[in-house]
Amino acid sequence: MTPYDPIFADGPGTGLAHPASYWLDTAGPLPADDGPAPAALDTEVAVIGGGYTGLSTALHLARRGHRVTVLEANRPGWGCSGRNGGFARMAFGRLSFSDMVSRFGLPAAKVLFGHTKASLDNVRQMIREGGIDCDASEAGYLKVAPKPGRAAALAAEARLMQRELDYPAEFIDARTLQRDHLGGAQSFGALRIPDALALHPLKLAAGVLRMARAAGAVVHASSPVTGWRKDGATHVLSTPHGTVRAAQVVIGTNGYTPPGLHRDLDAAMMPILSHIIVTRPMTDADVAGSNFVTGHVLTDARKLMFYWRRLPDRRILFGGRGLIADTPGRTASHRDYLYRELIAKYPSLDGIGIEHDWHGWVAFTRDFLPRIRCAADDATVHYAVGYQGSGVSLSLYAGRLIAARIAGDAAEPAIEAAGHPVRPFPLHRLMRIPQRALFYWYRFLDSRP
Ligand SMILES: Cc1cc2nc3c(=O)[nH]c(=O)nc-3n(C[C@H](O)[C@H](O)[C@H](O)COP(=O)(O)OP(=O)(O)OC[C@H]3O[C@@H](n4cnc5c(N)ncnc54)[C@H](O)[C@@H]3O)c2cc1C
Fold first, then answer.
1. 3, 4, 164, 253: least buried by Cβ within 10 Å?
2. Per-residue pLDDT tens over the stretch 247-264
3. Ligand 1 centre and the CA of 36: distance in Å?
4. pLDDT digit string (tens) for 64-93?
5. In a mutational test of the pocket of ligand 1, which residue from 141, 143, 254, 338 has the highest number of ligand atoms less than 8 Å from its CB?
6. How far is the CA of 259 from the centre of ligand 1 (A)?
């Protein structure tokens, strides 16, 4: 069987079950959906993709009284939304605040930071309004210096955020970090951002699905969009079961976007695998040896960064993005690589073992910026994609912004930095070759002091 790669595949499959994961094992019963799309359907807004982007769009449109139908190829939350690390952060791709300043200038960077803050507040608000039980905790975020030489830049970032945003970011020195948060061999200080949630991503997706349906949205599973044409002003989408006619279409397919779905998105994204391992629960001795006591969500200051956190049942979730091909052999060796890297951080945990691992496709754009906008030549087509692997908060917020735009609600301003046309990757179908070289280069850069 050819391994699935969104660059080449016709689509992400049809009616597939959620992949095995720690999240699936601990989610409890998942809510009902509306089953496959019928043979003929008329709707006002059709949403392609039933992840956070699509479900949030549907929720916010339905609340305003619009008729909205989600078409999901597999199950709602089947893509990244049901399998991520559960870090809800203030994020616009991977840009730090200093990156925002150098790319857009200080005034625009401040506006953009405000959007990232609003995106996290939106997650809090949705959880509250929907009574979503997704084990959410106000965790905070630590960006850890894995080598002594990386600490100064993190300290400078904290100072910049304090000075320009009056935001309570802080730099935690190595001694304090090791004493109060986490020990190990690679904890040389950290930037602390107090705003971030740790949560159960599949329970969150299930909660948003429930909210969207309760508000009146219809969510069809096992309904991949396999064709798309226009009949006058009406969009006509084909599914294996029939056709869906809609006045407007929203695309929320992100890393799982098949080629040919819409011309704006052809070759526009580089799908990259993100892979997670989960250990057995730490014993008291494990905790004492590693001093892994922090509830913060964690990443490290590296090009090919790792992300990790302590789960409520004391397991460690540890993820990274070095896997290139989704084959059983490569996945197994990447799982071993992630485990080696975890143990390199916490040598005293050697032997803790892996009890779960899974992966999914995140989406990068050429300029590393997410996009939330209308199609270049059709104001009735909207998309939100390219979250650069950090889309929990932004995708839910993007859905809200798209809904506001469709409803003509000017009170929810668009994110200007996400509004530019997407530039396609040249030789997109050959991109796995330079990607391999780039990852070797990143590993070399990350190995330097
Ligand atoms: C392992 C992993 C860890 C991650 N960790 C984090 C994290 O901790 N924090 C964070 O902020 N971000 C994280 N992310 C990224 C985050 O999960 C995503 O940015 C976010 O979930 C994107 O949501 P989405 O709704 O846009 O896309 P998805 O949830 O991927 O949903 C896209 C959906 O579109 C469907 N689809 C595709 N084509 C079609 C079609 N033709 N017709 C119908 N349906 C279609 C797919 O079946 C899929 O369900 C992680 C991702 C992965 C894979």
1. 3
2. 999 999 999 999 999 999
3. 20
4. 999 999 999 999 999 999 999 999 999 999
5. 254
6. 16
- Burial of 319 (C-beta count, 10 Å sphere; 0-12/13-18/19+): buried
User: pLDDT tens digits, residue range 300-335?
Assistant: 999 999 999 999 999 999 999 989 989 999 999 999
Ligand 1 mean position to 106 CA, how many Å? 31
CA distance 423 to 438: 19
Count CB atoms within 10 A of the CB of residue 10: 10
For residue 94, the number of C-alpha atoms closer than 13 Å in the C-beta half-sphere is: 19
Alpha carbon of 15 to ligand 1 centroid (Å): 16
| DSSP for 36-47, written as a single string | S--SEEEEEEEE
Could you tell me if residue 101 is left (phi over 0), alpha (psi between -120 and 50 degrees) or otherwise beta?
A: alpha
Mean pLDDT, all residues of the chain: 97
What structural domains and CATH numbers belong to the chain?
A: 9-135+199-267+366-423 (3.50.50.60), 141-194+271-364 (3.30.9.10)
Residue 331 DSSP SS3:
helix
Instruction: Give yes or no for a contact between 192 and 141, defined as CB atoms under 8 angstroms apart.
Output: yes
Buried b (16+ CB within 10 A) or exposed e, 43-56: bebbbbbbbbbbbb
- Tally of residues, the chain: 449
Pairing of strands 270-279, 306-310: unpaired
d(CA 84, CA 89) in angstroms, rounded, equals 13
Q: Is the Cβ atom of 86 under 6 angstroms away from ligand 1?
A: yes
Burial (CB count within 10 angstroms: exposed 0-12, middle 13-18, buried 19+), residue 186:
middle
Residue 243 parent element (H or E): strand 242-251
Long-range contacts of 338-344 (CB under 8 A, 24+ apart): 338/275, 338/277, 338/306, 339/277, 341/306, 342/277, 342/279, 342/308, 342/316, 342/318, 344/185, 344/186
